[in-house]
Each structure stands twice: as C-alpha cells, then as structure tokens.
Amino acid sequence: MPTAVHLSQFKITDSNLMSFERNISAPMDCVISAMEVMGVINSGAANIMRISTIGAIGITKQQIELIFAYALGKNFEFDTTSTYTQWTDIINEKLHPGHVVFAGVTGTDDSKHVFMIGRNSSGALVLIDPSNHMFCDLASEACVNRIVHGIREWHLLFSSDEFLTAEQQTILTQYMSHLHHQVHDI
Asked: Which residues, including other chains, have CB under 8 Å from residue 94's CB and lie 6 or more apart?
C-alpha cells in the first residue's frame, strides 16, 4: 500500500456546515458526523450507521482508516502524537484555507472523540464538532481547553498521494470481507 504521509484535507464550504442535520442522534456518532460534514458519506449512509451498532458503541481506528480507504481510494492512517504542540504545529504548517482535517483526541481516561479542525479564508483555525453542535475559534482559550485538558493523545488523518491500484483495492476489499470486527468507541 502507498505510504500515508500527507495531512488529509477536505474542502469545506458554509453550505456543508449549514446543511448538516443530525436527524437521528446516537451516543457514539462523532466519526459518522464528521465524515458526513466532510462529504465522505452522505446523510442516508450516516443515519444508517447511527442506527447500527456503530452509532451505539463507536468505531475503531482501523475501521476509520478502512472506511476512508474504501470511500476515497487512497491509503489512510489516523496517526497519533502525544503532544498538543506537535499536533498544532502540523495543522498550522499544512492546513490550507477553506479546508478541514479529520482530528481526534484520547483522554487520560481512555475516552476518545473525533471532530474537525478547519482554517477559514482569513487563516483562523476553528474547531468544528458537529456531534456536539460546537464551532469555536481556536484562538480562544475556552475552545483550546476543550481539546487540551484531560487529554493524553491527539490524532490527525494522513493519506497517500497515490490512489490504490485495482489490485490493492481488491486486496483491501478481501481483507475487509474477512476482518473479525472488534468494535471500540472512538
């Protein structure tokens, strides 16, 4: 598989954000909601996922990577860093205006949560958390506190430049067909 070395960025518009409707609420749908806002899955698929056990108990890191690979045809890695500074340095250096990154945190209590970090046209960074109806400026201390206090790891999604070959897609599909699903919340 091609190496996932580039920060995955998704173009986002006000209409993406404004058209998001969470008709069906699920306790563990942060991944589903972020993927829906980014356009990786449509609202119908998102609601079906919310109804399924995924919406009730969450999704694993491996499942996140496989969903993105299957949907977008590239290799993905939801990479981890143990310092907030390193995480924000990557975002500050790489994120383009009008785009978001798929991001997440792991708490000191092992709880996990996913959201998006976006850069608006003026260059400001914003935290976008559709499952909690939250949108805040990362220049605000109150906003930063939501993703710093009680957190031990920060996550960002990376992708390969190259698309998967037909052979790699077949291998991926076969792997997913035979995968023993052990679902953990994220």
From this structure: 6, 7, 9
Helix axes 61-72, 166-178, angle to 10 degrees: 140
Residue at token pair 């805040």 = 136
Name the pairing type of β-strands 112-119 and 99-107.
Answer: antiparallel
* Average pLDDT along the chain: 92
Q: Concatenate the DSSP letters of all residues of 18-75 into one string.
A: HT----S--TT-HHHHHHHHHTSS-HHHHHHHHHSHHHHH---HHHHHHHHHHHHSEE
Beta bridge partners, 159, equal 6, 76
Q: CA-CA distance, 148 to 160, in Å (whole number)? A: 28
Q: In this model, does residue 180 exceed pLDDT 60?
A: no
CA distance 157 to 8: 6
Q: What is the predicted pLDDT for the residue at 182?
A: 46
Can you tell me the mean pLDDT for 76-83? 96
